[in-house]
Give the backbone structure.
Amino acid sequence: MGFEKELATALEAVREASEICRKVQKEIAGSSLEKDDRSPVTIADFASQAVVCRILTDAFPNDPIIGEETAADLLSDERRPFLDRVVGLLTPANPGVHAETVCGWIDAGRGDGGDRFWTLDPIDGTKGFLRGEQYAVSLALIVDGQIVVSLLGCPNLSAEDGWDRDTGCLFSAVRGKGATLRRLDGSNETKPVRVSGTGKASAARFCESVESGHSAHGRSSQIAALLGIESTPVRLDSQAKYGVVARGEADAYLRLPTKAGYREKIWDHAGGVLVVEEAGGKVSDVDGKPLEFTHGRELSANRGVIVSNGLIHDALLEAVARTA
Ligand SMILES: Nc1ncnc2c1ncn2[C@@H]1O[C@H](COP(=O)(O)O)[C@@H](O)[C@H]1OP(=O)(O)O
Ligand SMILES: [Mg+2]
Ligand SMILES: [Mg+2]
Ligand SMILES: [Mg+2]
């Protein structure tokens, strides 16, 4: 199956959501609040989830969506002004839309898994978004446990090679059909995406989280030292790191388990994994096992994530094991 309609629908959804995120990022002050787990969320996270779920549900009414956000976080009286701002972001494209309808769109993202489902991170890297740095809109379709379509909208990542620096870029992949890069604006011109050809682990360029609480930075520098790597890792937020490895600007992305024992969420990886794999790279957990997207909202069968150009993957896993 070619998944043409799925890809076209997902491209439209990620583009529309990214446009809203861009608009909010320009005037970010006062646009965020804290969730029960103390992580930040902004009006753009909710609006992005609403838009993507609306578009997906229109096109594929039977497909469940597992999204990060829930409208429950918007329903207290004190949060009503915040909800009204989310509604305001959706009004230009949906004149007269009511708060109840918007909450319904957001909660279309509360689906369960199954044989065929979508997973969505409406803003991945909210902390980066708030700092005015990298973030991504991440969307993937999973069929029989395999990612078959994946997209990463990266509004603050320049589309290389003479494309306008501030258009942002959009990665997509369909299983067996390669990975592609577009500008995030309306243009449908595409470029193939390929990982680097770096075969010597000592020459590898790493990228990693900005937030040390999300991945063990100390351990990644030990791993780099073991491999004889002298360059310092590039730190950037969000699944934009998958995009950067997919297009060969870095050779590896290490997400090493932290002491807190955090379980990775499927929406924090699904959009990036197939882009890297279809670009010729490899993704596994720290034990070398493939990521399993068949256990609900979390990657509960995996620990950490190692992303590479494929050529240096075994060397990375060996060094990871030696620092365990
Ligand atoms: N304690 C945590 N450990 C690992 N990842 C986390 C943690 N808390 C939130 N995240 C998620 O990690 C991702 C960002 O990590 P980074 O940018 O450092 O790679 C985001 O998906 C973020 O969710 P969110 O989508 O809410 O931003
Ligand atoms: Mg979050
Ligand atoms: Mg995320
Ligand atoms: Mg998020």
Remarks:
- The pocket of adenosine-2'-5'-diphosphate (ligand 1) is lined by residues 39, 68, 121, 124-126, 128, 209-211, 213-214, 237-238, 262, 268 (CB under 6 Å).
- The mean pLDDT is 95.
- The two ends are 42 Å apart (CA to CA).
